[in-house]
Amino acid sequence: LMPDAKITEKLVALLNQSLADTLDLAFQVERAHWAVDGRNACGLRLLFANLHGQLTTYVDAFSQGAVTLGSPALEALRTADPSTLPGGNPPDARGDKIVLGDLVDRCGEYSGRIRAAGRMAESLGDLDTAAFCQGVSRDMDKTLWMLTSIQVA
Known about the structure:
The protein is mainly alpha-helical. 74% of the residues lie in helices and 0% in strands.
């Protein structure tokens, strides 16, 4: 049973925003993968590669959700220009602590946005999208915990 047109429109917008947020974070993770250097660079690159793969599965799921509702997935990458990345550090910043600190901030922001998207999906009656978003935010909270624990070490 398809929701009415107004609810469908809101759900599509929510899914496409979540898709854009996920693509944005995946781009930042890829940037971090190549920007990190120092003693722990090899281990961090492996961690970042795994996180990028995790985000790719989310990209597919958000895209599929929008398509299932009859809309194209609008894949918009807001940070195609690396100089627009938030965090206060220049795009060529290197070093474990700088790169990891920026990524911790970005993952925390992403997790919060996805959690809010889940609450919105639930309020619109889309319990499947709500449950998926809750799972994504839980996974990202675990990732954030891991990144934070490395940052402190």
